[in-house]
Amino acid sequence: MKNLLGVDIGGTKCAVTYGRGADGKLDILDKERFATTSCQETIANLIGALHTVMERNGLRAQDVYGMGISCGGPLDSRSGVVMSPPNLPGWDNIPIVKLLSEATGVRAGLHNDANACALAEWTFGAGKGTRNMAFLTFGTGLGAGLILDGKLYAGTNDNAGELGHIRLASFGPVGYGKAGSFEGFCSGGGIRQLAQSAIKEKLQMGGIVPWCPDVEKVTAKDVAEAMAGGDALAKEIFTTSARYLGIGLSVLIDIINPERIVIGSIYTRNEGMMRPIMWDVIQKEALPLAAKVCEVVPAALGEAIGDYAALSIAYNL
Q1: I need a labelling partner for 313 at 20 to 30 A (CA). Which of 90, 110, 152, 155 fits?
Q2: pTM of model > 0.90
Q3: Whether residue 74 has a cis bond before it, omega within 30° of 0
């Protein structure tokens, strides 16, 4: 069994986790959480939490296989430096791997949160046993991570897998700062934009949308709940998202020829409706031989993926 430490650095909260893993299985044994504040205070709190968790569980540095650090990008995974993420003001070229390793005596690795989640699903979740896999977050935004030939592929400067930035249409909802992008059609924010346009059009034509009293406050969750209740407009909105998911995945399948694509969050909760539409597009758009060997499955780790993500970096050091 490998003793593992995980550090999850988020814009509003951070966590330090201790787990033990072996043979594709992971037990999460302890966790410390606290709010993200200023850069220096947060780093001090991370070091304090690491010492607390190690002492509480009788861990010496030599007892720990490794430490994984998951953080929003941009960052440099090779040098272990966090490079001014938009959700972490003040974190400008912070050598986080060096700081936490020197403070604990434990070797560490750093990856952005989407890549860390890909490692988690590949090591412990729905991607287990594959050599070529892609993971898509499909949550608030569309992040992705790639496992190619049995290892994480981060690209030349940690920008591989930014599928959300691909433009799928000349016009459409805005995601990743680009209208008609993959993220625009396949994310919580994108589905909200699709809903607002569809609802406004229906209202302008004299129709009513009983499940949406305030078009400016509608969410992807509202649309999903209305669809589950049989609402035709809500189903139309999700149909659009599912169709563009199929288009985007067809591009991915043709380029990297994966054996499995794992999709989280919104897709996982609405797979029954989205999958047939998505798969029909893939059958028409992707290369037949590549599509034949690729399966698309929902993520397995659910809400626990954040805990698994940082520990998976450590496990794969």
Answers
A1: 90
A2: yes
A3: yes
